[in-house]
Amino acid sequence: MEIKKEVTIYDLAKELNYSPSTISRALNNHKSISKKTIKLVKQTAERVGYRPNNLAAGLRNNKSKTIGILIPHINRPFVSTLISGIEEAARKAGYNVLISQSYDDYKNEVNNAHTLYDSRISGLIVSLAMETTDFAHFQQFVDQGIPIVFVDRVPKVFNSYKVVIDNYSAGYKATKHLIEGGCKRIAHFAGSQHRNVYEERKKGYIDALKEYNLPIEKELIIPFKTLSFEEGKKVTKKLLEMKNPPDGIFSANDTAAVSAIICAKKMGVSIPEELAIIGFNDDPISSIVEPALSTMSHPALKMGKISAKRILDHSLKDLDKLLSEVSVLNTEVIARASTKPIS
Cβ neighbours of residue 187 under 8 Å, at least 6 residues apart? Predict the structure, then answer.
């Protein structure tokens, strides 16, 4: 099978008897080219199958109209929705996206950051890997004036755009919801404490207990490696086998919370009468499990759109001010059957 030669602007120039520079300007809607000529060039380009070479243009301009996305796991509902928000905003502005997964591994994140940098992206949107504590691999972008937006999982010390929710308030609200439903001993499924989201959710949990004069019991605060389904199941079994088991669980994500519901039901524990459970993210599974999981809203789509907008609006003329900009979104309790109604 013969491979068809790719059409170039030189082929268009030859067919229309214009210079290559005129063809290029027409394709980019340059004001020096008449509307009639622009229409003719674009119609011809479509007819002969011309495709613009964005990579070549990027190499000439030292960047491409591409936004890099570096995330832990693409198969997590929150992350996939976040990406949808980024793509929607990027596409409207004529940008493409490159997506790379770290699988929550620091070395993967470093290698992927270098690959995206070599791809001459216009900006980078990052949600940090669970393991990451060193951010030196992002400095190459800053040195070249390439904007970085950290979203959700963000570094404490790195001068950049950040898009987050109020995780402290969310942790407080989730715990308060359990307390007002009558819970007295509330366990917390805590993520890695060097990640901002999990550290702040834990602080909110602790402060809610303090406000209601409930004890802070270290044995009920369980550190998780990845907040996976398997981890949630093992921890729930261990908690419910205690001499004085908890009557509430606040999980820092929905995955571990759903596994807690399933495990508790298998052990004959009634939900929410004997054990009330609230998760975080409002993943689709939270409304499918029985009983349906109470959870905290997490505006992933909006966070994605804002992150992309920060890249698109970036201006080197106002670099210092923009790099320190932080967008904080609010979140609310979504009460379902896994928690007791507040009287």
Answer: 220, 221, 222, 239, 246, 248, 249, 250
130 within 8 A of 79, measured Cβ to Cβ = no
326: three-class secondary structure by DSSP: strand
The tokens describing 79, both together, are 């992350």
| One fold for 9-52 and 63-165+300-329 | no
320 torsion bin: left (phi>0), alpha (psi -120 to 50), beta (else):
alpha
Rounded to an integer, what distance in angstroms lies between the CA atom of residue 160 and that of residue 314? 11
pLDDT > 70 fraction of the chain, expressed in percent and rounded: 92
Q: Which pLDDT tens digit goes with each residue over 92-109?
A: 999 999 999 999 999 999
Mapped onto helix, strand or coil, the DSSP state of residue 196 is helix
> What kind of architecture, by CATH, is found in domain 63-165+300-329?
3-Layer(aba) Sandwich (3.40)
Domain with residues 9-52, CATH architecture: Orthogonal Bundle (1.10)
